[in-house]
Amino acid sequence: MTARVRESALDPAIAARLKRTPDGLVCAIAQQHGTGEVLMVAWMDDEALHRTLTTGRATYWSRSREEYWVKGATSGHVQQVHEVRLDCDGDAVLVVVDQTGAACHTGERTCFDADVLLTSNGA
Amino acid sequence: MTARVRESALDPAIAARLKRTPDGLVCAIAQQHGTGEVLMVAWMDDEALHRTLTTGRATYWSRSREEYWVKGATSGHVQQVHEVRLDCDGDAVLVVVDQTGAACHTGERTCFDADVLLTSNGA
């Protein structure tokens, strides 16, 4: 299936390495610089990745609103970008950021704080 | 769209909180216990999550092979599970593991080691 790729100024050498969903997206994992906390998971198309790489502000594609979403644009909980890494098969990016305030819309620091399915401390 | 949910022994209380892709999957991020390294991204259906929670070995659904995949079953690079956390909207799990050897099939420690798109040390 051909991925739906929206027009973008993304470096063609990077674009050629992406393996997108049918909706033209790659998975984006935001991780806190220094502590390594996994903050949230979201999605990027080519243009969101381009904006993330060139503006220093993590920018995603909102699947529900079908629009670009600069993290923190309304909440102030911005993500300043330190590093962006593409995975071995080109379908996920790791975005290392400095997170201002809460990453999660619920007010939690990360989107993974509230629902622990299993813990085995010291195992 | 209704997700294609394969039969599974997953706790119904957990299954009810999952928001799956049309293929019945949630995104799974494996993170090294202690160091916080993000090792890899893969996918789980209900049964893969059930096996991960109950066997202590990270188990994924291979989209390409359409079969369950116990990480390290052939390579020996197993992932012993410490924690599993579900994100706020139920479409991603964070699996905190002890990774034996390389997480990436290329032999790199993580799937994000080889392709750095942006780095701004000290920014």
Automatic annotation (TrEMBL), chains A, B:
Its EC number is 3.5.4.19. It comes from Pseudonocardia xinjiangensis. Mg(2+) binds at residues 87, 89, 91. This is Phosphoribosyl-AMP cyclohydrolase. Keywords: Amino-acid biosynthesis, Cytoplasm, Histidine biosynthesis, Hydrolase, Magnesium, Metal-binding, Zinc. It comes from the Bacteria. Zn(2+) binds at residues 88, 104, 111. Homodimer.
